[in-house]
Amino acid sequence: MFYSLLIKIKAQKSGKFKFFTGKKLHGAFLNIIREADRELAQELHDKDIPKEFTVSNIFGTNSRKFKLEEGQNYFFRVTFLNDRIYKIFSSEICKNILLSRGILIENIPLSIEEIIYKDNKYSGIMDKIELESKRYRLIFKTPTLFKSGDFFIRYPEINLLFKSLLTKYNLYGEKKIDESILQFLYEINYEKIDLKLKREYLNKFFIEGFVGELIIRIDSKNKDLVEKINTLLNFGFYCGIGTKSSIGFGQVLVENLEGAEK
Predict the structure, then answer these.
(1) What CA–CA distance (Å, rounded) separates 236 from 244?
(2) 156, exposed or middle or buried, with CB in 10 Å at 0-12, 13-18, 19+?
(3) How far apart are CA 48 and CA 234, in angstroms?
(4) Does pLDDT of 120 surpass 90?
(5) Looking at the chain, which residues constitute the CATH 3.30.70.1900 domain(s)?
(6) Reported confidence tier of residue 47, pLDDT bands at 50, 70, 90
(7) What percent of the chain has pLDDT over 70?
(8) For position 134, what pLDDT does the model report?
(9) So what's the pLDDT on residue 38?
(10) What CATH number does the domain located at 2-116 have?
(11) Which of 22, 150, 185, 230 could form a disulfide with 131 if both were Cys (CB 3.0 to 4.6 A apart)?
């Protein structure tokens, strides 16, 4: 199963961020896991393949521009692509660390006010998807880009988008999806493209990718193909799309525009 948790935080003092907060929250997340399971934390840190978790930025923040106000509440989310890491993060050890200590981002202390497990558009659980919807809206909340060889692509080419989803799904999904479905991507089209480029700054460089909205239409009459595309699109909410997703890039909301569940 795949999981998404929404975490409510409160700024204990005011301050401005210099860099993209997803990277800093990612480091804080690994430190919390390290206290509960040092071996797992090292394993997660060392992996070259897409990691089995993502940590978003603080919602609504922009590096070098956003100021947190003391006493105000903010949110970020964490997703998990396997049961092992989710169970450790949800353990009493990790919850006690979070709730008692909070986290520190660029010298701004943040207390953890609440961990929200469900009933929110940013939280939930994906078990088995049996959908045959043919229209989806993807809302890209943070810069999204793809790596192709030595180049970065800042446009949602359909083959790169679905290859990204398929690669991650076949790493962590229980039932694998054959790569042959990539041959049928000509049956998927964009109804709407409303995107712009956005930069976020890390320590010594910036990353630029697209944000905004896509509406995807699946034109295939092949029921099996439609179900697999539905699975991959819904999985995108949990895994993120494109490169650097573990530190908060490629965060996407996925909306089924037909809502027809079997």
Answers:
(1) 14
(2) buried
(3) 24
(4) no
(5) 130-256
(6) confident
(7) 96
(8) 94
(9) 82
(10) 3.30.70.1890
(11) 230
| Cβ proximity of 17 and 32 under 8 Å | no
CATH 3.30.1360.120 fits 130-256, yes or no: no
Give the up-direction half-sphere exposure of residue 91: CA atoms within 13 A in the CB hemisphere. Answer: 14
Q: Which two tokens stand for residue 36?
A: 């509960």
Cα–Cα distance measured from residue 246 to residue 103, given in angstroms and rounded to the nearest whole number? 18
Position 260 scores a pLDDT of: 44
* Residue 55 identity (one-letter amino acid): V
Q: First-to-last CA distance in the chain? A: 19
Q: Please give the average per-residue pLDDT across 207-213, as a whole number.
A: 96
Tokens 């396997």: give the residue.
82
Three-class SS string for the chain?
CEEEEEEEEEECCCEECCCCHHHHHHHHHHHHHHHHCHHHHHHHHHCCCCCCEEECCCCCCCCCCCEECCCCEEEEEEEECCHHHHHHHCCHHHHHHHHHHCEEECCEEEEEEEEECCCECCEEEECCCCECCCEEEEEEEEEECEEECCEEECCCCHHHHHHHHHHHHHHHCCCCCCHHHHHHHHHEEEEEEEEEEEEEECCCCEEEEEEEEEEEEECCCCHHHHHHHHHHHHHHHHHCCCCCHHHCCCCEEEEECCCCEC
Closest-CA residue to 182 (of 253, 232, 238, 223): 232
Length of the chain: 262
What pLDDT was estimated at residue 262? 34
pTM over 0.85: yes
Work out the burial of residue 21: count CB atoms within 10 Å of its CB; fewer than 13 is exposed, 13-18 middle, 19 or more buried: buried
Supply 100's token pair. 């008692």
Provide the pLDDT for residue 63.
Answer: 67
